Amino acid sequence: MSREFVEFFAGFRLTPAQRRIAQTLVEHSSDVPSMSATEVAVLANVSQPSVTRLAAAVGYNGYKEFRSALIEMLRRSPSGSELEEPNEYQRAINSEVESFQALGARLSERKPMRAAGALIMRSPVIVTVGHRAAAHLAGYFAHYAAKAHPDVRLVTSAGSEMTDALLAARAVGAEVVVGFVLPRYPIDTTQALEFAHQLGFTLILITDSEAAPGNEWAEVLLRAAPSSRLIFDTHPATLLTASMLVQAMCDEAPALVQRRLEDLESSLKGRRVYINQTGRTPSLRQR
Fold first, then answer.
1. Which of 22, 117, 161, 191 has an alpha carbon 20 to 30 Å from 218's alpha carbon atom?
2. Inside any domain, residue 7
3. Which residue did the predictor score with more confidence, 28 or 145?
4. How many domains does the chain fold into?
5. What are the φ and ψ backbone dihedral angles of 180, each rounded to 5 degrees?
């Protein structure tokens, strides 16, 4: 396994199929000098043209040129580095640690998160939007935000259902949309944010980059990059950011939220929602 290969592929935004090929090349780096594009495709369980497309995606005119560059990387690789390199699962975890460290560094400035919490709590109704892979993140945020806010509406639909939901929320006083905008940036999300902007919503975006779609309309941008070391992106940093945004909401109105949580806990116990009925009510303190 070549550390140079790992570092090389980490510099590109690849599709899931291309990541599978890259992972195969990393795992079989010692065989790269003798492997044809067809053999790589068989090992990665993809088509041969997919291997060629990967070569083009990382800047080479074809597989042969790409393989020559990989061979040169191997030649420059320090002897014994294969033994020191973590496996693919350890690399994925290390990548998440890096994402958390970058997130922590950005949060030394607390103003954006606090501003987002204040905007949300001032709005009588809030909407959270997410599509495809981001839908479950929007749903996670909506679930917990609803414990602190009286009216949270989740929009994961597209087309006319999406515009209907935004219009209905706006009609009853919604002022804020919290959007989850993740690579590869679904068109549905971009359309939802543009329509929300046209309706006069204030936009709070949780996304990976300042260049993400919708940034030009955002009042607050909270960056949380996914990791791309596995075949599909992973989003722990995004999930944590969603949780911190709920915390910022709670910190904005601690007494009000405390009463809501106590009432909710009483209701949950009365309705026997959970098997374990001894859950404690969180205690909020002004931070």
1. 161
2. yes
3. 145
4. 2
5. -100, 115
Residues facing 206 on adjacent strands:
180, 222
Q: What is the pTM of this model?
A: 0.75
**Using one digit for the tens of pLDDT, what is the confidence trace for 87-137?**
888 888 888 988 898 899 999 999 999 999 999 999 999 999 999 999 999
Q: Can you give the CATH number for the domain in which 62 is found?
A: 1.10.10.10
| 215: phi then psi, degrees, rounded to nearest 5 | -60, -35
C-alpha dihedral (148, 151, 155, 159), degrees to nearest 10 = -160
User: What is residue 24's three-state secondary structure?
Assistant: helix
Closest CA relative to residue 178, chosen from 218, 146, 151? 218
CATH number (domain holding residue 147): 3.40.50.10490
Question: In terms of domains, do 17 and 51 share one?
Answer: yes
Domain range for residue 52? 3-85
Q: Are residues 64 and 151 in the same domain?
A: no
10 near 30, Cβ under 8 Å?
no
The model's confidence at residue 190, banded by pLDDT at 50, 70 and 90, is very high
